[in-house]
Model the fold of this input.
Amino acid sequence: MYRDPVESLEPLHHRPAAIRTLRVGMIGIGTVGSGTFRVLARNRADIAARAGRSIELVIVAARNLQRAAGILGEGVALTADAMQVATHPDVDVVVEVAGGTGPAREWVLAAIAHGKHVVTANKALLAVHGAEIFAAAREKGVIVAYEGAVAVSIPIIKALREGLAANRIEWVAGIINGTTNFILSKMRDEGLDFAAALAQAQALGYAEADPTFDIEGIDAAHKLTLLAANAFGMPLRFADAQVEGITALQGVDVACAEQLGYRIKLLGVARRQAAGVELRVQPVLVPATHLMAQVNGSMNAVMVKSDAAGLTMYYGAGAGSEQTASAVIADLVDVARLDGVHAARHVPHLGVHAHATNALAVVPRAAVHTSHYLRVPVHAVGQIQAVAACLAERKVPVRQVALAAERPGAGPQVLVLTGPVEQGALDLAVHALQARAEVAGAVATLRVESLEG
Done:
């Protein structure tokens, strides 16, 4: 496949010597792999023109060889042994789209050891084993590219590395998991509880049979780890991220947020502070008028605050076969352009000046400083002032107090929006509030993100 070089528009006597085709081996021919094959075949000439050379898929490793042959047709070699692709002498770059963190680590490290560049869409692999993989790549002078691992169709890694290269990044915040965003959209739009919204997401194919990585925030934390590394030049700190999913989120809080002029989104936030970097994933309240609040269904969006460019926002599909293929092939184009040049000119593995900022620590949960939403069940409507007074006693700034709209079968609920306060101080205040006689049930708390400059 892809044997014909793209014709140059230059006169013949000005043409340089032919540049060798970039030969690609791919591990996996599932959703992402098949999409990558289709897009490479369909847009072969445009891709080659942009890369400056042809890109040819020469071998693919697949579990089901018969199925793979039906997708690929003739012209691409097939093997059931992924390691054969990783070490093949005729392969310049290995595309790993099989997923997982066990065998994938061995394949990628073997490819690097054999001097091959790597393109992967495997965020879990990089979040868990990235330090080892990037160190090996630096040692061998090869590229590890992973645009498809974060926010899929949104070129956010390139934006941080290239478009915003002149900037000091202050924070990155994003809706970076399409499954949870779909569930939250259904909870708001149709008044569903979490379980019903999840069941609908599974029926429509937005959620896996085992959705744990999505709904517990783990997938978003994998992606946030990579965003933070590129934004701040810090090591991969997945193990230190504060991760909270949406499984405990109640429909009443989605409705109460709407009443107060907010929407709830599962947000990944990496924010530079004097003491280090906040690295957290959790459901938060976002002003309903904010652009981030308008990101619905399975779509993703990432916002970046930097010193020179200011606020920038990137929006696109967070999943999909050809959407992910778009990012994978963009990385292949980068490899095609840079293969053979001095290693110092390679696309940086984790952003710029990583050596200067490695000391950045992850800010502990108790020290994170944000505004908060509280929902406090009380025995009587008149006890609203007691709630506010208890918080004031604990030095929690109260910005707004209101009664929740009446709900069938539910008692009165006091809604509170606080000013910025450290999480540790708020936890102590909520503990004291929970012990008050006026409080009739568990106090619900969520952070509030303004996402302002």
